[in-house]
Amino acid sequence: MNDAALETGTLQAPPFVVAEAISKAYGGAQALKAVSLSIVPGEVHGLVGANGAGKSTLIRILAGLTQPDSGQIVVDGRRIAANSPHVASELGMTFIHQELAFIPGMTVLENIMLGLPKKTRFGLVDWPAIAREVAPIANRVGVRAPLTANVKGLSTAENWLINITRALVRKARLIVMDEPTAALATAESERLFGIIRELSKSGIAVLYVSHRLDEILELCRRVTVFRDGRLIGELTGAGLSRQALVESIVGGAVEPSRNRAVAGAAEGVAISVRRMSRAPKVKSVSFDLKKGEVLGLGGLVGAGRSELARILFGADRPDSGEMTLDGKPFAPRSPAQAVKAKIGFVPEERRAEGLILSKSVGLNLGLANLDSIVVSQMLPLISGRRRDALVERTIKAFAIRGAGIDTPVGRLSGGNQQKVVIGRWLQSKPKVLILDEPTRGVDVGARAEIHRFIRGLTHAGTAVLVISSDPEELPDLCDRVLIMAEGRIVGELAGDALTRHAIIAASYAGVQEHGAT
Amino acid sequence: MSENVISTRRLSPAAKAALGVFARYATIIGLALMIVAFSALSPDAFPTFNNFINVLNQASLAMIISGGLTLALVIGEMDLSVGYAASLHGVLVTGLIVRSGLPIPVALAVVIALGGLVGAANGLIVTKLRVNSVIATLGVGTILVGLSFAYSSGAPIVAGVPETFLQLALGRWLFGIPNPIIVMALVVLILWVLVERTAIGQEIQAVGGNQAAARLAGISVDRIKILAFVISGMCAALTGALLASRLGSGTTSAADSYLLTAFAAVFLGSATLRDGEFHVLGTLVGTLIIAFGFNGLNIFGAPTFSQYVFQGATLIIAVGLSSLGRMLAES
């Protein structure tokens, strides 16, 4: 499998970058706990771990975007006192992120040279001279688009190659790639792997971050594994196998006992989804959501779960597929129609999509319940009494702290803000409630209260769909969990088979099966 | 490092609270100070009942058009067509009465409906064609100027304007209060109740606060936006009709300058009582600041240019002070 060139003993070379005992906490949450990582010139180093394991935090620290609480970064044997994006770039570290940021409307060459010093002639940028310098590098990397082409409309694969070109023009010595193949087809991935091997041969190190273990095994001779912000180990040689990787990622943690309430009493299917597709993230998804059930949607970040949820709520239109709600055809053309059909939605980005931050708790809670707080349908004046009663009931039911009716919602803590977003649906008693990452960034107490509320809803017959990237959350909360990978449903877990371990394993297995199609 | 620099500038909680209050009441304090100053400087001419009624009368047309514009800004869009729309509808209402012989109430109803139609066109262009509202309303406004010339050939419609139409703006009602003040009071009341006290008003505020969140809460964002433009258009038409009545003629560019006044009033209002949010009562305060300022300058015989300098400077100072105060209070 491994390229012959990689078999030569480059690992003995002195390291280029070493991260030593890096710790970082966000609020009360420890994102990284004394993790270390060293990268030698010319190696392709794998970095793996489940969602929230701390990979992104470490990358941000290497890039100088975040300062560590303790620990240090050493480049070429010298300690970096104050890292910043500028310093990192000067030292030869470049970062290619999942979401590539190009400026549309500018040419390939202009984007490659963005922010880099440019040759000038008579005080004007000498593009022909720059092009002569960049062209051989672009050719070597395999950029097919002409340098003068507009970047708009180029494929994701081409964008990656342009970014690699940019890194080489900057004389990068380390290129950090975050999920490079997430949006690439197989042939494109193969092309990228070839280029990564070329880079490696010429002495450039690559830190390869991916959920796709097969790619990691194919490309990397050394793989660092994180779990829950800790360094679990560095796998090399014979110790580096798929089995060993999965075990390290998942861990042998004891499953927490599940004391779930029995599913609600109601019977029958609330919403039924058939062959739902929306390019590129959702591919022919079919499932039934039963009344009074809490159904989880597990999988890795980017598996297409949020996109599926947006279709169900009418926020996006599907390319094909159909749904029924209570047995009747249901094709919401807008969230307003979905709400009218008694579907509730708690979006992933609560500050950007869930709340009107500058407005009061009262206004935010009332939004989904305007019919119930007006004096009458004929006279749609807000009844202060009804609205106050509604808000006070919700504040009490959810223990929303620090909130009065007129408090701007932006002043509440994250957990209390999330309670407002969810609490909006308390009164309207939805038939279906869809929650996308309902407890992300929420403290333990608020999380328990949110879980209690979700379970409570099912007793009234509400069907609940919960998307969570936290594998601990789904076994706690759900009756049944569907695993999504690469836009498809690849597994279902229920009963005793529903464990944190099983969810993670199935998530990775799904990537494996469909990654090669 | 940078955090330390910020922390040394941090204010005590009391100072923060004081600044917060100042930021909210700066415009009202300014209005009060202005009235006190003018009264002291000109105790005979300025602080009289008749002069105050006169100022309100002058302010009323500006307030009606500014109130409508407030709605457009509350939902986060611009409406640059209001001045041109008011001019066109002033021409139309006189034309409909003089040339087409329509009864005055019918002519009024027609132009207000047409004003709503212009607003609907603005709203549809912004929501369905997704044209930036600055461009959309500037384009529509320019077309309206053209329509106005087409209808009147550019000549003011003066001859044959009936006395009863003039009485609309010049007449007095209840306790001798000029009609425009009564109309203004009604419009302010209706708009305030609509935005602050109705279900639709909650949706309007939500759309203005965060469009994405409003949509995901189940609000038909496009419908709300179109409604706001329709109201803005209707208010502009009403202002245009009242101005034609006050002037006794329909003139193609009579109300164009209301655009600037209205924007000044609405932005002054956004610095009033609430932190940078547009709202109807704030707009009322903004309109009064401008009206009292103009009146005072007139009484002192200040030259015309000073009115423009006053209007521009007041706007920048008031909004600037309030956002500065807010920044300090939040830091």
Describe this structure in words.
The complex is a heterodimer of chains A (517) and B (331). Helix content of chain A is 34%, strand content 24%. By secondary structure, chain A is α/β, with parallel strands linked by helices. A 6-stranded mixed β-sheet of chain A has the order 6-9-10-3-11-12, sandwiched between helices. In chain A, strands 18-19-20-15-21-22 form a 6-stranded mixed β-sheet, with helices on both faces. The radius of gyration of chain A is 25 Å and the shape is globular. Chain B is mainly alpha-helical and 331 residues long. In chain B, strand 1 (172-173) and strand 2 (177-178) form a beta hairpin. The longest helix of chain B has 29 residues, at 13-41. Chain B is globular, with a radius of gyration of 21 Å. Residues 1-9 of chain B have low confidence and may be disordered. The interface between A and B is medium-sized, with 30 and 23 residues.
Please describe the topology of this protein:
The complex is a heterodimer of chains A (517) and B (331).
Chain A: H1 4-7, E1 17-26, E2 29-39, E3 44-48, H2 55-62, E4 70-75, E5 78-79, H3 85-90, E6 93-96, H4 108-112, E7 120-121, E8 124-125, H5 127-141, H6 156-169, E9 174-178, H7 186-201, E10 205-209, H8 213-219, E11 222-227, E12 230-236, H9 242-250, E13 269-278, E14 282-290, E15 294-299, H10 305-312, E16 320-325, E17 328-329, H11 335-340, E18 343-346, H12 350-354, H13 361-366, H14 370-373, H15 384-398, H16 414-423, E19 432-436, H17 444-459, E20 463-467, H18 473-477, E21 480-485, E22 488-494, H19 500-515
Parallel strand pairs in A: 3-10, 3-11, 6-9, 9-10, 15-20, 15-21, 18-19, 19-20
Antiparallel strand pairs in A: 1-2, 1-4, 4-5, 7-8, 11-12, 13-14, 13-16, 16-17, 21-22
Helix pairs in contact in A: 5-6
Chain B: H1 2-8, H2 13-41, H3 49-74, H4 82-98, H5 104-127, H6 133-152, H7 163-170, E1 172-173, E2 177-178, H8 179-197, H9 199-209, H10 211-216, H11 221-247, H12 258-270, H13 280-299, H14 304-330
Antiparallel strand pairs in B: 1-2
